[in-house]
């Protein structure tokens, strides 16, 4: 592989950065709200599953 100079490397980085599609502010806000909502929903779901399993284990252990 051929060695490239630091200047050429920076030009290549800038050329690639120009190709990136940056999201708009609205897209960023919408995505952040969706991620926050999904995080809360999954947290509640796993809290419920954990409570259910805890109850089952307690019931099994108290039956012994």
TrEMBL record:
<keyword id="KW-0472">Membrane</keyword>
<protein>
    <recommendedName>
        <fullName>Protein translocase subunit SecE</fullName>
    </recommendedName>
</protein>
<comment type="similarity">
    <text>Belongs to the SecE/SEC61-gamma family.</text>
</comment>
<comment type="subunit">
    <text>Component of the Sec protein translocase complex. Heterotrimer consisting of SecY, SecE and SecG subunits. The heterotrimers can form oligomers, although 1 heterotrimer is thought to be able to translocate proteins. Interacts with the ribosome. Interacts with SecDF, and other proteins may be involved. Interacts with SecA.</text>
</comment>
<comment type="function">
    <text>Essential subunit of the Sec protein translocation channel SecYEG. Clamps together the 2 halves of SecY. May contact the channel plug during translocation.</text>
</comment>
<keyword id="KW-0813">Transport</keyword>
<keyword id="KW-0811">Translocation</keyword>
<dbReference type="InterPro" id="IPR001901">
    <property type="entry name" value="Translocase_SecE/Sec61-g"/>
</dbReference>
<dbReference type="Pfam" id="PF00584">
    <property type="entry name" value="SecE"/>
</dbReference>
<dbReference type="InterPro" id="IPR038379">
    <property type="entry name" value="SecE_sf"/>
</dbReference>
<feature type="transmembrane region" description="Helical">
    <location>
        <begin position="32"/>
        <end position="61"/>
    </location>
</feature>
<keyword id="KW-1003">Cell membrane</keyword>
<dbReference type="InterPro" id="IPR005807">
    <property type="entry name" value="SecE_bac"/>
</dbReference>
<keyword id="KW-0812">Transmembrane</keyword>
<keyword id="KW-0653">Protein transport</keyword>
<keyword id="KW-1133">Transmembrane helix</keyword>
């Amino acid at each position: 592989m051929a060695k490239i100079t630091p200047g050429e490397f920076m030009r290549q980085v800038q050329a690639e950065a120009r190709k990136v599609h940056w999201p708009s502010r609205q897209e960023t806000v919408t995505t952040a709200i969706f991620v926050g909502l999904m995080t809360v929903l999954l947290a509640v779901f796993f809290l419920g599953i954990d409570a259910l399993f805890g109850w089952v284990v307690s019931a099994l252990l108290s039956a012994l």
